[in-house]
Structure formats: structure tokens, C-alpha cells
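re: ur question from yesterday

yeah so i grabbed the chain u mentioned. its 430 aa long if i counted rite. heres the sequnce exactly as i have it in my notes:
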Amino acid sequence: MNQKNVYDLAQERLEVIFREFDNIYVSFSGGKDSGVLLNMCIDHIRKNGLKRRIGVFYMDYEIQYSMTVDYVERTLHSNLDVIDVYHVCVPFRVTTCTSMYQNYWRPWDDAEKEVWVRKMPDDALTVGDFPFYDRKMWDYDFQVGFSRWLHGKKRAGKTCCLVGIRTQESYNRWRAIYKNAKERYNDYEWSTRIDEGIYNLYPLYDWKTEDVWVANGKFGWDYNHLYDLYYQAGVSLDRQRVASPFISEAIESLALYKVIDPDTWGRMIGRVNGVNFSGIYGNTHAAGRKSVKLPEGYTWKGFMEFLLSTLPEATRNRYLKKLDTSIRFWRERGGCLSDEVIQKLRDRNIPIEVGEGTNYKTDKKPVRMEYQDDIDIEDFREIPTYKRMCICILRNDHVCKYMGFSLNKEENEMRRNAMRKYDNIVNDSQ
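ran it thru and got these C-alpha cells back, copy pasting raw so excuse formatting
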């Protein structure tokens, strides 16, 4: 029996999706993955003669390569016979790692209209179109709010948002798909529940980067030709991303804007704090990249204290709060480490307390220990060290993702409040 390839498996998933969901939309970014997913859906509708339309949700972050803007416009305008376009230009918060002063910026902020990088599209949906919008919202909060808003607007029985993320790309993307098996749709491992009757589905979750490009070539689909320039510039396939340019994952290649799209680069510099510095030093040890060097005469703890002393008070306190939380966590609960890493710590005579088990779904063991200055082992990212905190500060990693932090209690509460406010608006209108 011939084994099915990823394309055939994705087609089977689309069969399920179009059969069981009355409201379908694709989250489209202008990148290679969401582009292939959208093309597959459009082909599926046309080849099967389906008398239905799908939505395309495009969150416009204002600052994009002009080639990305051109590709998005080509794709949306050439498929209006089968798609409904939701081109969103909203000033939600977006993480930035370019500045020690700002941990976020706002695309399309009316207060910054004079320095917008480009003119807002005429067909854009703005703040007034979304009653659930709140100034405290981050971009990911808006995504959730949008799915609930569209579900209600369409009076749908079941809504799904198709997302072109693949588990190959990163651990965080793997976790987004597999984080809660109980919240799946009909136990499909490529699904997660967002709300009652609303799901995120990932038809390309098992694809590799090579599969994406093979599909584009085999079926002659249009794609973002920015990737051609990435390739010519020597950017590896796994580092070629079309995303908000100021997030941690994009900082290393920020300087490419200067070469590929100099007009956009010129306007970016005056739009978000720290862009020029990040463009120059974003791929060096000065920004916590590659080999981070400890200045002569310092310990990592001392260097951390020096770095903190250079920061604005609010930023400094934010890092100190994260550090205090991490220290208490490793002292009281302990982090999960493999037997191999535990042995490496013992070989170096690091004082540790190893527990027998944990509530987390892992074979690793909980290890309680004090913060170390640095540990010269390959797995140092798993160990609580002041060096890791230094790297977060150098990278302007305000959330401390490099240390394994996600949203804190305060941030999650802000998110819940925004969702409760939206619920009240919906209920009042019914």
C-alpha cells in the first residue's frame, strides 16, 4: 500500500473542513505557508465546484516589505469570486525588541499618522468596525476577538480559522497545536478549540519547508517573491520569515530592509524607537546574538546589574519582577530537566535537589536549585543563570521569552478583561 504524501493528507483534511464547518476563513500573512494554504482552499472550491465562499483574514502591520504588500494585493484582488476579504488595519499592541524604552508599538496609530510608513488601504477595516476592540489588546488578543466577532456576524453553527503553521518551524508552534488534546475538534490532532463552536485548524501542520516550495512549483501558484531575494541574500530557508519586523525572531535580518527595500527602511527609522541600532547591531553580540561576550572584570550577575542600571525605571522593574519570579520558581518548584542534564550538573558539583515526578506531561524530573552565574554546558538555556537574563536584556526581550516565560498573571488578566468586555457588547446587542 502506497503511503500518502502530505499534500494528499492535507486534501483529506480540507474535505473534512468544508464538509463540517459552515464558516471558514484563512489567516493570511503574505508568507509562504499561509499563501500555500490559501491557494489550496481556493483550488479546492473551484475544482469541486463548491457553491460557497471563504473569508481571508489579513492583519496589516503597516510596516511590511513592498513586495509583501504587492503579493497580498495580487492574491486578494484576483480571487474575489470565492473569497471575502477582511483587511484589518487596527492599532493593537505589537511586541518590539528594538528598544529598551518600548516593549510594544502600534501599527496604524492615529497619534502617529504623520509618520505612517505607508498610506492606509482604502478597503481596510478599522477600529470602528470592531466593537470588541480595546486599546489594551495585543495582536494575538485581537485574533481571538476577531474569530468570535466573525462567528457572531455570520451566525455560524461552527467556525474555523485555518492557520498555516507547521510544527517543524519551532517548539512554540508545536506547542500551539499540541498543548491540549482535550480541546480538539473530533480528536483531530491538527485542531485546537478557541471557543464554543470556534476552532483553529492546521491542515499543513506536518509539512516541511521543502513541501511548501514543491507545492508552489508543481501547481504554479503565485507566491511572495521576497523569498527569491532572501535566497539571493544567502538567508537560509528556515530563517526566511515574513512577519512583523520588530519581534525577536526578525531582528537578526532587520538590516535586509535597508538593502531590499530602502524606501521603506527610511520611513521605518522614524517610526519605531531603536530600529536603526537594531539594524546595525541586531545580529551581533551587542544585541545578545551569536557569541555573547562577558566584559572583562565582570561576573554575569554583575554585568546583569550594570545593564539593569542603564535602563529606564519601568523597564528595569519589569525585568526584576521576571527575575524574582524565576528565582522563586527554581527554589520552590523546580524546573524539569532530563537525566542527562541532571548528571552534567552533578559532574560539576552544582547543588541540586531532584524530585521524583511532576504534574507536567514529561519524563523529565523537577530540579530545585539556586541561580548560577553561568554553566558551561551545551544545555545552558535550560538552566537558571544570570547569563540568560543578560541575554534577555541585550535583546530587549521584555517578556523574557528566552528564559521560557509566557504571559504573566497581569497580562493574562488584561486579556480576559478584554474578552469579557467583548462578551458584554455582544450580549447587549442581541
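noticed a couple things. The mean pLDDT is 81. also The chain has 16 helices and eleven strands.
anyway ttyl
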